[in-house]
Amino acid sequence: IQMTQSPSSLSASVGDRVTITCRASQGIRIDLGWYQQKPGKAPKLLIHAASSLQSGVPSRFSGSGSGTDFTLTISSLQPEDFATYYCLQDFSYPRTFGGGTKVEIK
Amino acid sequence: QVQLVQSGAEVKKPGASVKVSCKASGYAYINYFMHWVRQAPGQGLEWMGIINPSGGTTSYAQKFQGRATMTRDTSTNTVYMELRSLRFEDTAVYYCATPGKAAADTPLDYWGQGTLVTVSS
After folding, report:
1. Residues of chain A contacting B, Cβ within 8 Å
2. How many helices (H) and strands (E) does chain A have?
3. Residue of A42, A45, A100 with shortest CB distance to B44
């Protein structure tokens, strides 16, 4: 299954609403997670099962979608949110990541 | 609290093999699936494969079939990922990751700190 993530990068300001999308090459129900990665660090799980917020993750992060189209939304971007975000389908093996979206400061 | 501690950085020559370890603590690791993910410098995340420590069964991305082997040592709560016939393009940070829940292979909630493998002549 191919995961196409867009955009590959974006520039935004603190307080902006940010939306990242991931499209699967075939239906994957809601079997998708979103991960945040900061430079030099391991990825961190934000959202699982497309829309379930992982414990301890701020509520400004939300996920939606099912089937082939998914969205990660940050409702009000904070300084600590500047990072790279990846989707990962866990519908079938082999697992596949999206190409990543780098969120930079405008 | 689940913790995954990986072995240290490695430098290998092309054609050699590398074996990265991932030691688990804080849970009954025998029940928890372990994934391996790698990231080349400046690139995205790439899923390599998964091992079920309970029975030792594995599944690999096609790209790594025949070149990667994932194993486990139940006596030390450690899983291993061996990659053979190393190429320059295998230079990457290798991560182990687990859901940290019994009988679950998703999502990847706990990650090791990463192991840098450099392939250089």
Report:
1. 31, 33, 35, 37, 42-45, 48-49, 54, 86, 88, 90, 93-100
2. 0, 11
3. A100
Helix (H, G, I), strand (E, B) or coil at B9: coil
Q: Cα–Cα distance between B110 and B87 in angstroms, integer?
A: 28
Given this model, what pLDDT does residue B28 score? 64
The residues of chain B scoring below 70 in pLDDT are 28-30
The answer to whether B115 and B36 have CB atoms below 8 angstroms apart is no
Q: Which of A36, A95, A101 to mutate to test the interface with B (most CBs of B within 10 A)?
A: A95
Average pLDDT over residues A21-48: 98
The tens digit of pLDDT for each residue in A43-100 reads 999 999 999 999 999 999 999 999 999 999 999 999 999 999 999 999 999 999 999 9
Judge contact between B104 and B2, C-beta under 8 A.
Answer: no
Dihedral of alpha carbons A55, B108, A87, A104, sign: positive
Residue A44: count of CB within 10 angstroms of its CB? 17
Average pLDDT (A1-6) is 98
Consecutive H or E run containing A61: strand A61-66
Maximum pairwise Cα distance, chain B: 42
| H helices present in B11-117, as ranges | none
pLDDT score recorded for residue A54? 97
Q: Which helix (H) or strand (E) holds A64?
A: strand A61-66
